[in-house]
Write a structure and sequence with these properties.
The chain is α/β, with parallel strands linked by helices. It has a single domain, classed as UDP N-Acetylglucosamine Acyltransferase, domain 1 (3 Solenoid), CATH 2.160.10. Helices cover 16% and strands 24% of the residues. Strands 2-5-8-11-13 form a five-stranded mixed sheet, with no helix packed on it. A five-stranded parallel sheet has the order 3-6-9-12-14, with no helix packed on it. It has a four-stranded parallel sheet with strand order 1-4-7-10, covered by helices on one side. Helix 1 packs antiparallel against helix 2.
Length: 154
């Protein structure tokens, strides 16, 4: 997925414009789609939301999704993964969603991720964590996970 220097610079300029421009349901989603983020239908992207700079094509935001103020979606850490925000999902303010290489954390259709939560997909090599999940996450098909962070299996 090597990009030209010009494309990488353009992506960063568009990303900075999208972070601070008005138009949470119009201009911001449009600017992110120009960068390569897959956006379907009408979505809400709040102020100062950071959507993956290096691999914006690895982010998918589906119809009706809401990503609130200052949330961060990072689809690469030493290699690219993928992040999917489902239809009518809600990410509260200051949420962080990260993907390890080869993983796809998915915020399901209609899911609600509480403010300041962290959602991460474990790498395929990682063992099961020896700590209890500490993130608040709920959805219509919730398994009853409550707390402050959620580690999804790879």
């Amino acid at each position: 997925m090597e990009k030209s220097t010009l494309r990488r610079v353009l992506n960063r300029i568009l990303e900075m414009l999208a972070r601070f421009a008005p138009g949470a349901t119009t201009l911001r989603p449009f600017l992110h789609s120009l960068r390569g983020v897959r956006i379907t239908g009408r979505v809400f992207i709040g102020d100062d939301v950071y959507l993956e700079n290096e691999y914006p094509e690895c982010i998918e935001v589906r119809e009706g999704a809401q990503i609130c103020l200052r949330s961060i979606l990072i689809a690469h850490t030493r290699g690219s993964g993928r992040i999917v925000i489902g239809k009518d999902a809600f990410l509260g303010a200051n949420c962080v969603v990260t993907a390890s290489p080869g993983t796809t954390p998915t915020i399901g259709d209609g899911a609600v991720v509480a403010t300041s939560s962290v959602v991460a997909a474990a790498s395929k090599e990682a063992e099961r964590p020896s700590f209890y999940p500490t993130a608040r996450c709920s959805s219509s098909d919730s398994r009853g996970l409550r707390g402050r962070a959620l580690l999804l299996p790879g």
